[in-house]
UniProtKB/TrEMBL annotation:
<dbReference type="InterPro" id="IPR023865">
    <property type="entry name" value="Aliphatic_acid_kinase_CS"/>
</dbReference>
<dbReference type="Pfam" id="PF07931">
    <property type="entry name" value="CPT"/>
</dbReference>
<dbReference type="InterPro" id="IPR012853">
    <property type="entry name" value="CPT"/>
</dbReference>
<dbReference type="GO" id="GO:0005524">
    <property type="term" value="F:ATP binding"/>
</dbReference>
<feature type="binding site">
    <location>
        <begin position="16"/>
        <end position="23"/>
    </location>
    <ligand>
        <name>ATP</name>
    </ligand>
</feature>
<keyword id="KW-0418">Kinase</keyword>
<dbReference type="InterPro" id="IPR027417">
    <property type="entry name" value="P-loop_NTPase"/>
</dbReference>
<dbReference type="GO" id="GO:0016774">
    <property type="term" value="F:phosphotransferase activity, carboxyl group as acceptor"/>
</dbReference>
<dbReference type="GO" id="GO:0016301">
    <property type="term" value="F:kinase activity"/>
</dbReference>
<keyword id="KW-0067">ATP-binding</keyword>
<feature type="active site">
    <location>
        <position position="43"/>
    </location>
</feature>
<protein>
    <submittedName>
        <fullName>Chloramphenicol phosphotransferase CPT family protein</fullName>
    </submittedName>
</protein>
<keyword id="KW-0808">Transferase</keyword>
<keyword id="KW-0547">Nucleotide-binding</keyword>
Length: 183
């Protein structure tokens, strides 16, 4: 396979804090990239869990917005990651929306399950104040989560590209991503 084809990702991992704009950017990418790209996010996984699952041993949300990830959630997330990786192995192209609240370990776990796939790593950033304002408008998050995660989820993470949705629109960010990976 020619180098330029091998280097084109079949997976784009968009990492950013809550309310950073990952979903808006991913939706723009779905409309502009060639072919069908599935948009799968950690929020979809969380929404799929029963209410009884949420506890300090699995996944909990503190009053100040801190997310506590326990062994129970990591097990479920491992299953989900393996399923996403299997989809990629069978030909799917995937936009993964994640927020590495557990630090570099989150990226390392994706790297392990996607080791055979060409992956593009994208940091989706915005200033904590912008994320907090978006969080307030959304009304579906614990207050403080967005500001806490805005910078923290990027610590120790290696990216191929970073975009800032505080200084550019979702369409502009998606355009930068498309130009970078698909020229």
């Amino acid at each position: 396979m020619p180098h330029h084809e091998r280097s084109r990702p079949r997976v784009l991992v968009l990492n950013g804090g809550s309310s950073s704009g990952k979903t808006s950017v991913a939706r723009e990418l779905q409309e502009t990239l060639d072919g069908v790209w599935l948009r799968l996010g950690v929020d979809t996984l969380i929404d799929a869990l029963p209410a009884s699952f949420f506890s300090e041993d699995s996944l909990s949300f503190a009053a100040d917005g801190e997310v506590v990830v326990g062994a129970g959630f990591q097990q479920v997330e491992d299953w989900w990651m393996a399923g996403v990786a299997r989809m990629v192995q069978t030909g799917a192209r995937v936009l993964i929306e994640d927020n590495f609240v557990s630090g570099p370990g989150g990226q390392q776990r994706w790297q392990a399950v996607l080791a055979e796939a060409p992956v593009g790593w994208v940091g989706v950033r915005c200033a904590p104040s912008i994320a907090a304002a978006r969080e307030q408008v959304r009304g579906d998050r614990v207050t403080g989560m967005a500001a806490k995660q805005a910078d923290a989820v990027h610590e120790g993470i290696a990216y191929d590209l970073e975009v800032d949705t505080g200084t550019q629109s979702s369409a502009e960010a998606a355009g930068r991503i498309q130009a970078h990976f698909f020229g």
